[in-house]
Amino acid sequence: MRAFPSLTRALACVLALLCLVPAALAGATPDASIPPSITVTSESINADGRLLTVCAADRSPNKPKGENQSPQVTFTPVEGATNYVVLMFDTDANWLHMALWELTELSIAQGQYADKKIYVGPYPPGGGDHHYRIEVFALASTPDKTVGKMNASNNYEKIIKALDTAGGQPGNILLRGEITGLYKNKDNTAE
C-alpha cells in the first residue's frame, strides 16, 4: 500500500515532464537538428556584438538614421553545396530584414545589396536591444520554392521547411551557421 504514493508521485513527475517538453519545443525550429557548423563572420558587427549604424534603415524611427547598407558577411564553404541562402531575422519581432537566395560566393561586401526587395535595415521601436541573426544555409540544390516576405513578420519554420525541400524531398539543408548583432533605436555604432 505504501508503494502507491511513491508510484503516484513518480507518475505525476513523468506527466509533468511530458507537459513541459512540448512547451520547451514550441520555440524550436526545424533546422535545430542541423548543427551550426558553417563559420559566419561579419565586419558589420563590432567586437561588442553591435550591428553598425550604417546597416540600419534610413528611415524613422531610427535616430540617427542609418544608410540601409546590407551587412558584410563571410562564411566557410561546405562540400556538396550548390548554393547558399543568407537570411537576417530580427528574432525579437520575427521580422525578415534580408533574404539572399541562390548565392554561390562566400563573401558579401557591406552595402552590396541596396534593393529593398533584398535588404531593409533594422528600424526597431524605442526600447531595448533587438537581436539580428544572420543565418547562412548551405543547400544541396535549389529549393522547390522560396517563401518569406521582406520587411514583414514571417513564419520562420515555414521558410526553413521550404529551404530544406528540393525535388519534393526533405534534407536539402546540408549545414548552417549564424552570427547575431544587436541594435536598438538611438544606437550610433560607427565601428
Any chance you could write out the topology, listing elements then pairs?
Layout: H1 3-25, E1 40-41, E2 73-75, E3 83-90, E4 95-103, E5 107-108, E6 130-139, E7 152-153, H2 156-163, E8 165-166, E9 169-170, E10 173-183
Antiparallel strand pairs: 1-2, 2-5, 3-4, 3-6, 4-7, 6-10, 8-9
Order of helices and strands: HEEEEEEEHEEE
Quick one: overall form? globular
Spatial gap, N to C terminus: 70 Å
Query: What radius of gyration results from the CA coordinates?
Result: 20 Å
Low-pLDDT residue spans: 1-31
Number of helices: 2
Which structural class do you get from the secondary structure elements? alpha+beta
Helix share of residues?
Answer: 10-25%
Main-sheet strand order equals 7-4-3-6-10
Strand content: 25-35%
Mean pLDDT: 85
Main β sheet profile: 5 strands, antiparallel
| Beta strands, count | 10
Question: Any key phrases for this structure?
Answer:
10 strands, 191 residues, 27% strand, globular, alpha+beta, 3-stranded antiparallel β-sheet, 5-stranded antiparallel β-sheet
Task: Characterize the structure shown.
- This protein is an alpha+beta fold.
- It is built from two helices and ten strands.
- The chain has helices spanning 3-25, 156-163; strands at 40-41, 73-75, 83-90, 95-103, 107-108, 130-139, 152-153, 165-166, 169-170, 173-183.
- The strands form three sheets. The chain has a five-stranded antiparallel beta sheet, with no helix packed on it. Strands 1-2-5 form a three-stranded antiparallel beta sheet, with no helix packed on it. A two-stranded antiparallel sheet has the order 8-9.
- It is globular and about 45 Å long.
- Mean pLDDT is 85; it is low at 1-31.
